[in-house]
Amino acid sequence: MVLPGRIVKNTLTALFAVVPFISFANSANDTVTVHSENAAVPVHAEAAHHAAEQEPLDGQAKNKAFIQHHLQDAYDFTFFSDEATGKHFGFPLPVVLIDGGLKVFSSSKFEHGEKPAEVDGNYYMLHHNKIYKTDAAGTLNLDAHHHPTNAMPLDFSITKNVVTMLITAIIMFVLFVGLAKSYTKGPIPTGMGRVLEPLIIFVRDEVAIPNIGEKKYRKFMGYLLTVFFFILILNLIGLTPLGINVTGNIAITACLALFTYFVTQFSANKDYWKHIFWMPDVPVPMKIALIPIEILGTLTKPFALMIRLYANISAGHIVVMSLISLIFFFKNWIAGPSFFGLTLFISVIEVLVAFLQAFVFTMLSSLFIGMAVQDHHHEEDHDGHTDEEPIII
User: Fold this and answer.
1) How far is the CA of 242 from the CAs of 154, 164, 193, 312, in angstroms?
2) Which residues, including other chains, have CB under 8 Å from residue 139's CB and lie 6 or more apart?
3) Which pairing describes strands 40-44 and 94-98: parallel, antiparallel, or unpaired?
4) 180 vs 143, 192, 204, 229, CA distance in Å?
5) At 67, phi and psi to the nearest 5?
6) Which of 110, 162, 182, 203 has the smallest number of Cβ neighbours within 10 A?
7) Are 305 and 361 within 8 A, CB to CB?
8) Distance CA 303, CA 313 (A)
9) Which residues neighbour 31 within 8 Å (Cβ) at sequence distance 6 or greater?
10) Residues 26, 74: contact at Cβ < 8 Å?
11) Per mean pLDDT, which range of 51-65, 311-325, 326-340 is the poorest?
């Protein structure tokens, strides 16, 4: 199955255009009124899945909730909070809902999940990363498993992760335009181009050409470079104190993996599909048995890309945040400097991991693409085998 280049480009362009809208937001503190089977009681969001009556969180539970909040998306940028006064310092982001029409309002109406937002006579409550329709009191009805049964509007909000991806796209655009303009002045790039050129050459010579081949690699260089620098910049931004964990969001890694999947399938040649649906030189009964396995194999490749990036980045953030929290648990002059030094050491390793994960994702993507576009010559291989010189004993 070979599609024209224009169709592939238009399809990928449309997919990239909708990526910023595929995201879900999370909140650190949500206090709502929930209805169980017996009564309506206010429940803290981090403990809403437990019993209706919840004791105040201890230090360990607060630390766990803080780490979980760091790993999650949000409807606003909160740089820091004053626990004593309950004030949050940051700025809200636009909430875009489709519920009987387009609803656009600021996330500040939620007051960090403490109150319902009223829009055109409708009330919406932020609870456990999701927005539910509710009443003026912010009532949520829970089922037997303490999950809200309220209706959910279609959510296209511009969350913290979406803003970060847009900023990353702008950074990439500025860097590559600057690199292209620097070549007009001479063969040697200037400025940031001196940093970008070795990375581009590395992706070309060590990733694209070995896995795809010299004849076909240029067609996919744009995608491979975009994926590499997109993941790399997002990983590096995630190491800053801003608390942004984009590549640790499985929805984001799933989208990136789907892009590789679509590029692979739309670019595949007839030999690729022949090996999936009717493998050559294999008995017919075995061919029938292998068809579902081969089809499943095409799906496990993007799944591996998704889980690998998500798990590695999330694990790194959890380790760093846990080490930082230990400084406050062990309040003495030995533990403080020790855990601080260990946190600094792990953070340096995370910088290496940021580059490594961008490289691994790009390398595996090029490998899957190369497997789909490579040419097979079974007849030539067979003829070459039969024409071998006999072995003289």
Assistant:
1) 28, 11, 27, 19
2) 32, 33, 34, 35, 40
3) unpaired
4) 58, 11, 17, 16
5) -65, -45
6) 182
7) yes
8) 16
9) 42, 43, 44, 45, 113, 114
10) yes
11) 51-65
The encoded tokens of residue 58 equal: 């201890």
Task: Give the tokens for residue 68.
Answer: 């979980």
Contacting residues for 67 by C-beta, under 8 A, at least 6 apart = 318, 321, 322, 325
- Separation of CA 76 from chain center: 18
Predicted TM-score of the model (pTM): 0.76
Q: What percentage of the chain exceeds 90 in pLDDT?
A: 25
Residue type, 290: L
DSSP string for 122-190: EEEEEETTEEEEE-TT-EEEB-TTS-B-S---EE----HHHHHHHHHHHHHHHHHHHHHHHTTS-SS--
Question: How many residues are there in the chain?
Answer: 393
d(CA 149, CA 110): 20
The values of phi and psi at residue 124, to 5°, are: -130, 140
Comparing CA positions, the residue from 116, 149, 142, 150 lying closest to residue 51 is 142
Which pair of structure tokens corresponds to residue 368? Answer: 């899957």
CA distance 266 to 223: 14
What is the C-alpha to C-alpha distance for residues 216 and 12, in angstroms, rounded to an integer?
A: 18
Q: What is the largest CA-CA distance in the chain?
A: 93
Cα–Cα distance for residue pair 294/323, rounded to 1 Å:
43
pLDDT 10s digits, 30-39: 444 545 444 4
